[in-house]
Write a structure and sequence with these properties.
Elements: H1 15-37, E1 40-49, E2 55-66, E3 70-72, H2 74-84, H3 87-109, E4 112-113, E5 116-117, E6 119-123, H4 126-130, H5 134-145, E7 152-157, H6 158-161, H7 166-178, E8 181-187, E9 204-207, H8 209-214, H9 222-237, E10 241-244, H10 250-258, E11 263-264, H11 277-280, H12 283-287
Parallel strand pairs: 2-6, 6-7, 7-8, 8-9, 9-10, 10-11
Antiparallel strand pairs: 1-2, 1-11, 2-3, 4-5
Helix pairs in contact: 1-2, 3-5
Bound molecules: ligand C2E and magnesium ion (MG) (3 copies).
Length: 288
């Protein structure tokens, strides 16, 4: 397609790119109505203790059941929601749904498991972090649902916190003081200064999936082994727990357990799914 003379339009050579742009635009404009119509839903992926395989909670992962395009993953629409600001009400909805789910699990299984408090992990985007209502919204949701703060872990990516000034860290500190856990998501990809970790109010490191993937080869890349070993040692010396994401095989789980990682998530244990899926897993046994 020819570029219109003098216009500031993109040149769209192939029809596929054209379709992507239309879809992107279409998705963006459809987001607010989708939230009102209840087209979003949450899948839960179990968090497993590497020592004994018990389940102590789950991570909430949002999806969009689009009336024309079917189920869309967060990578398709979260960036758009961040761009338009809809991430704030959408994130608040995810948080409330997730905390309600945690309450239901706690009512059924008790508040603690063999591996600590039964909890729900919820992802926060940088926009939510910068939004002044974050602490109050979170407090209100916990009070409204009657759920203790130790049921909640908020995940913030390492890249969102690199170079974060005190204003950005203040709400996280307040939440941590209340007893909400903060996890550093996708850790190891962001080139952050490790000494900087001390300054952050985090209690969990979530090691990025790329490390898990490199544990697939046998023997694993010796440099990666050293790096993971070093991260685990540093994390533990700072009293941080280490969670690994993207565990797809038993070999990976075993390698990461030997390296001292505490908890894991991944398809090897369970794919993200409806909340009832957790009932089939070891939750009951873990509390028994
Ligand atoms: P994340 O927080 O790092 O979540 C882990 C992603 O890895 C999820 O992708 C999960 O489905 C996927 N995963 C889990 N186990 C495995 C495995 O064994 N192998 C592989 N290959 N992948 C695995 P998903 O659900 O597509 O989410 C992608 C990202 O979207 C998340 O990455 C998170 O950053 C973001 N996200 C999801 N839900 C929310 C939300 O409610 N709010 C915000 N702000 N972001 C969200
Ligand atoms: Mg996450
Ligand atoms: Mg992650
Ligand atoms: Mg990730």
């Amino acid at each position: 397609r020819a570029k219109s003379a003098g216009g500031n339009r993109f040149e769209l050579a192939d029809p596929e790119a054209d379709a992507r742009v239309i879809t992107r635009h279409g998705l963006t404009t459809a987001l607010p109505a989708a939230l009102e119509r209840g087209e979003f839903f949450i899948e839960y992926q179990p968090l497993v203790h590497l020592g004994d395989g018990s389940v102590h909670g789950a991570e909430a992962l949002v999806r969009w059941l689009h009336p024309q395009h079917g189920v869309l993953g967060p990578d398709r629409f979260i960036p758009l929601a961040e761009h338009t600001g809809l991430i704030v009400p959408l994130g608040r909805w995810v948080l409330e749904q997730s905390v309600r789910q945690a309450r239901a699990w706690r009512e059924r299984y008790g508040e603690t498991t063999a591996a600590g408090p039964l909890r729900i992990n919820v992802n926060l985007s940088p926009c939510q972090l910068a939004h002044p209502g974050l602490v109050q919204d979170t407090v209100e949701i916990l009070e409204r649902t009657g759920v203790a703060p130790d049921a909640l872990c908020l995940e913030v990516t390492e890249s969102a916190l690199i170079g974060a000034d005190d204003d950005l860290l203040k709400p996280l500190r307040r939440l941590a003081e209340m007893g909400v856990d903060i996890a550093l998501d996708d850790f190891g990809t962001g080139y952050s200064n490790l000494a900087n970790l001390r300054r952050l109010p985090v209690s969990v490191l979530k090691l990025d999936r790329s490390f898990t993937q490199s544990m697939q080869q046998f023997p694993a890349d010796p440099v990666d082994l050293k790096i993971v070993e070093g991260i685990v040692a540093l994390a533990h010396s700072l009293d941080l727990a280490v969670t690994v994401e993207g565990v797809e095989t038993g070999a990976q789980a075993e390698q990461l357990r030997i390296l001292g990682c505490d908890t894991a998530q991944g398809w090897y244990y369970a794919r993200p799914g409806p909340p009832e899926r957790l009932h089939e897993l070891a939750l009951v046994d873990a509390t028994a």
